Amino acid sequence: MLEYFCTLQNTPKISVIIPTLNEEKLIVKTLGQFTSLLKEKYSMEIIISDGGSTDGTLSLLTPLVDKVVKAEEGVKQNIPQGRNAGAKAAEGEYLYFLNADTIIEDTELFFTATIDSFSDNKNYALTCRFHVFPDDVRFSDKMFHGFYNNYVRLLNAAGMGMGRGECQMVRSDIFRKVNGYNELLAAGEDYDLYRRIKKLGKGKIKFLNELLVYESPRRYRKFGYIKVFGDWTKNSFSVFFKNKSISEVWEQVR
Hints:
Elements: E1 3-6, E2 14-20, H1 27-32, H2 36-42, E3 44-50, E4 67-70, H3 79-89, E5 94-98, E6 103-104, H4 107-118, E7 123-132, H5 139-157, E8 167-171, H6 172-177, H7 189-198, E9 204-215, H8 218-223, H9 225-242
Parallel strand pairs: 2-3, 2-5, 3-4, 7-9
Antiparallel strand pairs: 1-4, 5-8, 6-9, 7-8
């Protein structure tokens, strides 16, 4: 059973959906970028989809959060389930899926450019560049993200469809047409979603090179880039060829 409260009174154009699980260290910073002025200007709602946090995450949610969706108590929820739960409560024309540690470099540019891109009905989904928080950046971060951003850009240019789960933007009608995220996938669900969207044939997945979002380097610091990239690659190939992920769970790093 899903529980949620709603503070929004007007129908939004954008639904920002953020899955959380024990994110008390970063959630305030993430939510702080969505000011009341920004929300009003771009007609957006902010939805938290919580998978059962046992820390102080839920107590830190501000009035800027319009909806909170909670997983049924005692039920373990994975990331695609959390995203889908948030999407079910969403009313926006466009769904923006962000992680709880995702920070947008320039919010004005970001929302102006993405809405403009969606105004072309040929664009079914959008993605952009990623990097780690500027105050935590190392040389290895610059090397990896320089390579990986170009990799994602080239895959989309080649028509394969790719977008990292830290920030995926999809038209709500298209999201529902492909039945959202595959909840059986513990990993690779982000790649799988865009792969299925691309299979619809008529629409494009657009890579917006001018846009940049930041993420916490916590996973890279704990496991290292070789392991992280290896896990991404193995799961992507398994999803592509077998329609299932190799990882049975995606370990949270907090």
